[in-house]
Specification:
Helix content: 25-40%
CATH topology: Alpha-Beta Plaits
Oligomer: single chain
Radius of gyration: 15 Å
Number of helices: 4
CATH class: Alpha Beta
Strand order of the largest sheet: 1-2-3-5-4
Strand content: 25-35%
Distance between the termini: 15 Å
Shape: globular
Order of helices and strands: HEEHEHHEE
């Protein structure tokens, strides 16, 4: 598998392993999930722009040198039980939670050998994500990570 897809797969595997066994049946995929079965976490190549980044010169230099890749991790829940769904999102956002997305990726920043390093850049919380048919929405959170691929 190509580097970009391989890293997304490794990130999804690591997140999936961290979320298992905590009472929720998460759908975790290394691709953009168009019709999610919430709670859903998807991992995808991120926006290559560094304009909104607060990561400073290190992140910008890594991307400029073409060896750093941005990834977006997105979590979505259904609005039908908005209270429970938002509790899940709080857990995924919280750095001290067993469900922390950031901690899941920091537990092995090499992603099982697919990366030299993973660095958390930013999070955007509690956003509406319209469904494909436009008739409803999901509540979600996104995280942005800079991944330095491991080249051998």
């Amino acid at each position: 598998m190509a580097v970009v897809g391989g890293i997304a797969e490794a990130m999804a595997d690591q997140i999936r392993a961290a979320l298992e066994g905590h009472g929720w049946d998460f759908q975790v995929e290394p691709k953009w999930v168009i019709n999610p079965t919430p709670p859903t976490v998807d991992v995808m190549p991120g926006d290559t722009s560094t304009e909104s980044s607060e990561s400073g010169a290190m992140g910008e230099t890594a991307v400029d040198m073409a060896d750093g890749l941005w990834y977006t991790v997105r979590a979505r829940v259904a609005p039908n039980d908005y209270s429970a769904g938002q509790e899940i999102l709080y857990e995924l956002l919280s750095p001290d939670s067993e469900l922390s997305i950031v901690q899941a990726l920091y537990d092995d920043p090499t992603l099982g050998g697919a990366a030299a390093d993973v660095s958390f850049d930013s999070a955007r919380g509690f956003l509406p994500f319209p469904t494909v048919d436009g008739g409803s929405f999901h509540i979600g959170v996104t995280w942005r990570f800079l991944v330095l691929p491991a080249f051998s």
